[in-house]
């Protein structure tokens, strides 16, 4: 079996310097919970990591697509799409992507006085499945905020904001139902609204029209007719509009490279992404980034 620790197309990763971690460990706010490493691996084929010598950080992994596994304390767990888990600190472990359907993961290494209390809730895999009340895309946007804040530099304000946002990020998972209930009154049970919400929650994936229709509980033909009548677009075209809308957000609000943006919206072919973006926005992604707005 091929095993690769890193080097994935579209990947992003930040490893905070030891001096910065030391600074956070000596700050009473940051020491409660702080990030040491953070990243994103799309379709991480042959991803594998084995640590026989334990590390002092907890390792959070959120699988949004594909499959993988992890092993700790002689127990092996299979991981599928829309699941997450935390590996305990100071314990040998290993993990990796499935050979045939490699995972796409968001990952964070973290420490702090409160780290153990968050980790205890996630030592075994938990499901974060898209539903009419889920807020998956909001959670992933929060991850991007944390990443982008740290990417901007290690000022005291940036570090403390990233720590505060990370509390919220873990809270959206540890208190999943409460996170969903917080905006439950803003979500309609209407068929079209439910379908659009489902699309947004799966913006980083490929969805077939049958998968979207199944989520609403209607046949493909009946669902498509209603959706077209209400929106003026086919479900597939509307999903592409949402993908490009999110791509614009990533281009406007982050420093993600153009060839990484396509992976974030579930398009593996960068050339197809550029053609689709240009068709919808009237300019290429790179020109859009330079275009003055506001």
TrEMBL record:
PROSITE patterns tied to this protein: HTH_ARAC_FAMILY_1, HTH_ARAC_FAMILY_2
Stored SMART domains: HTH_ARAC
Signal peptide start and end residues: none
InterPro entries: AraC-bd, Homeodomain-like_sf, HTH-like, HTH_AraC, HTH_AraC-typ_CS
Source organism, top-level taxon: Bacteria
The keyword DNA-binding is assigned to this record: yes
Keyword list, A-Z: DNA-binding, Transcription, Transcription regulation
Entries under Pfam families matching the protein: AraC_binding (PF02311), HTH_18 (PF12833)
Domain HTH araC/xylS-type residue range list: 193-291
GO molecular function: DNA-binding transcription factor activity; sequence-specific DNA binding
The keyword Protein transport belongs to this UniProt entry's keyword annotation: no
PANTHER family assigned to the protein according to its UniProt record, in alphabetical order: ARAC-FAMILY TRANSCRIPTIONAL REGULATOR (PTHR43280), MMSAB OPERON REGULATORY PROTEIN (PTHR43280:SF30)
Protein name: HTH araC/xylS-type domain-containing protein
Organism of this sequence: Phocaeicola massiliensis B84634 = Timone 84634 = DSM 17679 = JCM 13223
């Amino acid at each position: 079996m091929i095993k690769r620790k890193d080097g994935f197309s579209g990947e992003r990763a930040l490893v905070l310097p030891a001096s910065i971690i030391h600074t956070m460990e000596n700050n009473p706010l940051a020491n409660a919970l702080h990030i040491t490493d953070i990243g994103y691996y799309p379709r991480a084929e042959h991803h594998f990591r084995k640590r026989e010598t334990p590390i002092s950080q907890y390792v959070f992994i959120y699988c949004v697509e594909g499959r993988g596994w992890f092993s700790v304390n002689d127990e092996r767990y299979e991981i599928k799409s829309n699941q997450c888990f935390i590996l305990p600190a100071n314990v040998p472990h290993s993990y990796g992507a499935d050979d045939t359907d490699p995972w796409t993961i968001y990952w964070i290494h973290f420490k702090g006085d409160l780290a153990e209390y968050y980790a205890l809730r996630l030592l075994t895999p938990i499901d974060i499945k898209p539903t009419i009340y889920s807020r998956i895309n909001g959670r992933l946007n929060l991850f991007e905020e944390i990443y982008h804040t740290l990417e901007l530099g290690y000022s005291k304000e940036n570090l403390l904001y990233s720590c505060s946002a990370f509390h919220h990020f873990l809270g959206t998972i540890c208190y999943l139902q409460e996170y969903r209930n917080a905006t439950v009154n803003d979500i309609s049970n209407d068929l079209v609204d439910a379908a659009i919400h489902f699309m947004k929650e799966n913006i980083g994936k490929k969805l077939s029209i049958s998968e979207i229709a199944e989520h609403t509980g209607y046949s493909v033909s009946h669902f498509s007719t209603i959706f077209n009548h209400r929106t003026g677009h086919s479900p597939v075209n509307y999903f592409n509009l949402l993908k490009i809308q999110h791509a614009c957000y990533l281009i406007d609000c982050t420093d993600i490279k153009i060839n990484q943006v396509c992976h974030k919206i579930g398009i593996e072919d960068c050339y197809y992404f550029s053609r689709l973006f240009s068709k919808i926005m009237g300019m290429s992604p790179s020109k859009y980034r330079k275009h003055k707005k506001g």
